[in-house]
Amino acid sequence: MPDSDASDLLRRILAERADVPDDHDLKDLVDLLGGLPLAVRIVGNRLVSRPIWTAADLITRLSVAERRLDQLAAGDLKVAAAFGMSYEQLPPVTRQVFRRAALARGPDFSAWLAAVAGEVTIPEAEDHLDDLVDLGLMQAAHSGRYRLHDLVRLYAQQRLEVDEPTAAVTAAHRRVNTWLLANLTDAGSWFSPQPPSTDGSSFCTAADAEAWIRAEAELWLAALDDAATAGDHQAVVDAVQAANWFAGRWRHWPHWSRVFTLAYDCAVQLDDLGRQAGFLNRLARTYTVLGQNASMAVGYAERALALARSAADGWEEAAALQNLARARVMLGDLPGGLDAVRAAEERFRHLDDVNEVCQTLLGRGDIARSLGNIDEALDCFQRVLDMVEDPASGMTPSIAAMTLPYVLSMSARALGLIGRNAEAVPRALRAADLFGSMQMLDAQARVLRILGEDLYRADQAAQARDCLLRAAEIYGLIGSHDEASRCRDKAVAVTGDASRS
């Protein structure tokens, strides 16, 4: 049932009590029951028949997942018994697919994963899952995926423990985790400077690989945790090393710091100094890319620099200098940032890494803009733009495509500072569209905000307002509610200024 209907039902049942729980407690109960009507009825009956219990007492009991199904019984009404009636009608293989679906530790899962867990083919898994949907033991989710109601998941977990030997459950769990990490390694490698041949991949295109990484994020994150705990350090390091190439496309995902910390800890166990430096660099970049914590980024970058030098890893040394430059700029040390980015550029040129030379030029240009050296900034940005748009430059196509919206937005901002708004606006609009197509929502919102605040002229108030409102909507989607509020306030101010003029 929808939450509002479930709350209304529970409130009507509890009307017999002298003390009807408040709305907050009702909501907590409904959340624990997932709106399942039978569970709502049982909870209502229990509270009516036990007037000395408070709603908080029952919430405490239901909060322990292992005990929740046992608590959902009142007289002849039992949630587990209702599930059991459907479960007993299933053929043996369908029961196995149902039980092992509980191994998927995310909001939903694919038939592909169910096939791996249930030891059936994908078409067979789809048939079994559809049968489970028809019986109400499974729910169809978006994009052909499936999910278990929270209470059904608990029942499936109980059946898994009772109906299968421990060794079989352990093997199925290991098989799912191995599959998840192998696919993460495969999918992430599509975004590396040397993407794989489609002949050896489970994915047909980079878009397929990206969709898989995003859809299965909670599942592969849990698999990384399990592998690290089990001591499978190499699998964690390999998977995260590959996923790193995708991280820049999904910058607002909140768990990258956890991913790279796990990988760093595993690299320590493997005594791999180069990989340790690499994952510290990724942590430094994670803390700078969204402006989260420059001081922590400096610490990670300095540790990465020392480890890279100990490992004689020139690439990670250059990357550490690049991260150090970003963090110093965030802390207001522009000269220190300029020194670091120039040192990084020199090392990347020595390594003949044109991809990273482009990134250092972007950094140099941004610092020059902040120092007021607009001509130098525009020169850096134009050099990057020339390389990005030249197929013979030596840049990896996927990295060139990723770099393009950045150089367009950064050059647009610099052009706006010297009054060349007519050139700046088309660049910024193109950058916003590119960021949107790449699902880089934080970057798209930032460009739209710059358009609305800085690049549209006073006689273009309607365009400015539209950009600010689009930015507010996107910031809201990614959870940046303060930024969303600021953009909405600015949109109102822009409209007001236009009407007064």
CATH topology category name of the domain at 392-501: Serine Threonine Protein Phosphatase 5, Tetratricopeptide repeat
The strand count comes to: 4
Secondary-structure element order, as H and E? HHHHHEEHHHHEEHHHHHHHHHHHHHHHHH
Strand content: under 5%
Count the DSSP helices: 26
Shape-level CATH architecture of the domain at 392-501: Alpha Horseshoe
Give the low-confidence spans.
Answer: none
The largest beta-sheet arranges its strands as 1-2
Give the class from helix and strand content and strand pairing. Answer: mainly alpha
Can you tell me the overall shape? globular
Would you state the CATH class of the domain at 392-501?
Mainly Alpha
For the biggest sheet, the summary is:
2 strands, antiparallel
Overview of the structural elements:
74% of the residues lie in helices and 2% in strands. It has 501 residues and is mainly alpha-helical. Among the domains are: 3-75; 85-164, Arc Repressor Mutant, subunit A, CATH 1.10.10.10; 392-501, Alpha Horseshoe (Serine Threonine Protein Phosphatase 5, Tetratricopeptide repeat). A hairpin with a 2-residue loop joins strand 1 (73-74) and strand 2 (77-78). Helix 7 crosses helix 8 (111-118) and helix 14 (233-247) runs antiparallel to helix 15. The protein is globular. 44% of the residues are buried.
